[in-house]
Amino acid sequence: MITSILLIIVAYLLGSVSSAIIVCRLMGLPDPRTQGSNNPGATNVLRFGGKKAAAITLLGDSLKGLMPMLAGHLLGLDPLALAGVGLAAFIGHLYPVFFGFKGGKGVATALGVQFGLYWPIGLCVAAVWLFVAKVLKISSLSGLISMALAPLFVWLFWDEKPLIGMQLIITGLLIWRHRSNIRNLLEGTEGRISAGD
């Protein structure tokens, strides 16, 4: 019980480390919260910082979800505790304690959680993202569709109520964080890759 609680706290704190802000500072780039969509995420970093900065940001955000889940497996946590760890990492990214609780939209961190939970789940979500991105060339729509299907993949590969519940919450929060993108999609004004966010 104590181990689970400690890992949940660590997962939230790790999730609270903003890869975008740190990468931009180290590479001498503007604060991503003041550029483009003002979102500290890889897609926004791509707009003004280029592919290298965006790739590093994407990797960092994914690892924030992946590492706590792998640690949970190593410690033998049960599905309920694993769900708590994954949710904590994701919420840390969305509402980081180190950056005034103003974080990113969560697609990369959610994907890291899914790969860390069980790699076929992450692979399926990533495949959907890549397919939609290739066909429609809209980053936000790729994220929304892939994460909307994520609870189904969790159910297919690891049918545990806490894990399905975790993914439903993650999907719901991610959709909420993308509400401005959804509005733009409905109006036909959403940017395309590499402008979508």
From TrEMBL:
It is an enzyme of class 2 (transferase). InterPro entries: G3P_acylTferase_PlsY. It is found in: Cell membrane. Keywords: Acyltransferase, Cell membrane, Lipid biosynthesis, Lipid metabolism, Membrane, Phospholipid biosynthesis, Phospholipid metabolism, Transferase, Transmembrane, Transmembrane helix. The chain crosses the membrane at residues 80-99, 111-132, 138-158. It is a multi-pass membrane protein. Pfam families: G3P_acyltransf (PF02660). GO terms for molecular function: acyltransferase activity. It catalyses: an acyl phosphate + sn-glycerol 3-phosphate = a 1-acyl-sn-glycero-3-phosphate + phosphate. Pathway: Lipid metabolism; phospholipid metabolism. It comes from the Bacteria. Its EC number is 2.3.1.275. Belongs to the PlsY family. NCBIfam families: glycerol-3-phosphate 1-O-acyltransferase PlsY. Catalyzes the transfer of an acyl group from acyl-phosphate (acyl-PO(4)) to glycerol-3-phosphate (G3P) to form lysophosphatidic acid (LPA). This enzyme utilizes acyl-phosphate as fatty acyl donor, but not acyl-CoA or acyl-ACP. Probably interacts with PlsX. This is Glycerol-3-phosphate acyltransferase. It comes from Marichromatium gracile.
